[in-house]
Design a protein that fits this description.
The structure is a homodimer of 144-residue chains. By secondary structure, the first copy, chain A, is mainly α. Chain A has a single domain (4-136), classed as Orthogonal Bundle (Arc Repressor Mutant, subunit A). Chain A has seven helices and two strands, in the order αααββαααα. In chain A, strands 1-2 form a two-stranded antiparallel sheet. The two termini of chain A are 20 Å apart. Chains A and B meet through helix 1, helix 6 and helix 7 of A and helix 1, helix 6 and helix 7 of B. The complex binds FE2/S2 (inorganic) cluster (FES) (2 copies). Chain A binds a DNA duplex (30 and 30 nucleotides) through helix 3.
DNA sequence: GTAAAATCGGATAAAAAGGTCTTTATATCT
DNA sequence: AGATATAAAGACCTTTTTATCCGATTTTAC
């Protein structure tokens, strides 16, 4: 479904979001430990996220990653996925035709668009604040 | 969503199904041409499909691939996906946790299972006969 | 100035995708 | 029956993409 980069990207962002609720800033090492991801690889993904201005990064001593508290309710999971994996998941053909086109559809098109749209809506209507709250309630986890 | 192998596998099976309606048997070369796929790679996928007894293969002169007409309504797209990509799509965690578990769910679990199940149902409730009929009506295409 | 932290450029490893050649099975034609 | 052409099966190799790692550089607080 998602690439490994995207999985790590989502988990990293959620962890940052959780800590950012209390105004805490977290380091790369903390993130990698919290989500159980390869540290150097995670760094690259965070760069992408930073360039897409989904997270803020600060260099130097006491640096790290954070998200402004006011932004938390405005950032959706869909934005993260788009920043990392692009939107082929949201508009690509299920059977790999160069472009999905309802005028000359592949045999899965009519049923696939329903699922694709459902996925898109679900991700678009989620926001970091809600997801982070479930995290610190212990209702969900980022690693096991 | 699906691997390239799976995409080719589905398209190949659908093409074979279409021809098998009229009792025709098709060769590897015909299949690869019809679905616009790399010929040798397609051969490998067809071997998997043959071993899963989703298609029948016959060696030698006038050999090729076919599906018994009576089987067409009994084979679902889900079977094809499972034979090639396994069922990680149907039971795997969206965020890459080793196993998806509702007791200790990842933050996407509750929303993701809905989509996953919808996909599973959709694929399970489709059968080759229906899909093949749309193909020969020209309502859908396998390449462009 | 020094230590801590992210950035950057590239190197390496692993997996997915695709290709080549040989072998085996099968129908048809001597 | 035997030779031959055809078509899939099987073993192995190459390329491409994805995933992961390393070292040098820059930025910042103390
Ligand atoms: S054409 Fe294949 S999903 Fe739309
Ligand atoms: S635990 Fe992640 S989808 Fe179920």
């Amino acid at each position: 479904m998602f690439s490994k980069s995207c999985e790590y990207g989502i988990k990293a962002t959620l962890f940052i979001a959780q800590k950012s609720q209390w105004g805490e800033r977290v380091s790369l090492k903390e993130i990698a430990a919290a989500i159980d991801s390869p540290i150097a690889f995670t760094a690259k993904i965070l760069q992408v996220l930073a360039k897409a201005s989904i997270v803020n990064s600060t260099k130097g001593l006491h640096g790290g990653y954070e998200i402004e508290k006011e932004c938390l309710p405005k950032i959706s999971l869909k934005q993260i996925v788009q920043a990392i994996d692009g939107n082929r998941i949201f508009d690509g053909c299920a059977l790999g035709l160069k472009i999905c086109n309802a005028k000359e559809p592949c045999p899965m098109h009519s049923q696939f668009v329903i699922i694709r749209n459902k996925l898109s809506e679900t991700l678009a209507s989620s926001n970091l604040l809600n997801v982070a709250m479930n995290l610190n309630l212990g209702l969900t986890v980022l690693k096991r």
